[in-house]
Design a protein that fits this description.
- This protein is an alpha+beta fold.
- Helices cover 34% and strands 25% of the residues.
- It contains six helices and eight strands; from the N terminus they run H-H-E-E-E-E-H-E-E-E-H-E-H-H.
- Helix 4 runs parallel beside helix 5.
- It is globular, with a radius of gyration of 21 Å.
- The termini are far apart.
Amino acid sequence: MPLRRTLLTAALLGALVPLPALAQKRPDNAPLSGVVTRVIDGDTLLLQPAGKPPMEVRLRNIDAPESCQPWGPESKRALEEYALGKTAELRTSGRDSYGRVIGSLSIDGQDLGARMVVEGHAWSTRTKWDNGPLVKQERQAMALKRGLHAAPGAVMPRDFRATTKCPPPPKG
């Protein structure tokens, strides 16, 4: 019995040792300032930090209509109006499968993703378990028939992507 307890204790201690190392490797979530130089679509843009190469940023917590989807061009124009040429603050939260930085972007202290949803230009990102972090803003836009919610039959981008493939946006 003592040998078994010793092995179990050693295994538990060994499992705990890497925890501080993992905590040290967490990415720094300090905000990064830059200028929005291009809007690709309703939830993706280029941010140019001072002295660094431009970053392709996918706005966190939202899903905007695809460029070839109804309301896609309007969503892109709205994001251009809100952000293009303006200084923004980015808080990163990771990268997506396309290598884009995922993050929350704010301009003059206002979260751009939340603004896109509340104005009816995007949906709150869904998860398996709920309707996402901006569901209250989405419901407000729906109730007020803002943007893409003005006409019945708006299709969420994830459902649209399941049945339709848009051509890729032009580079540059």
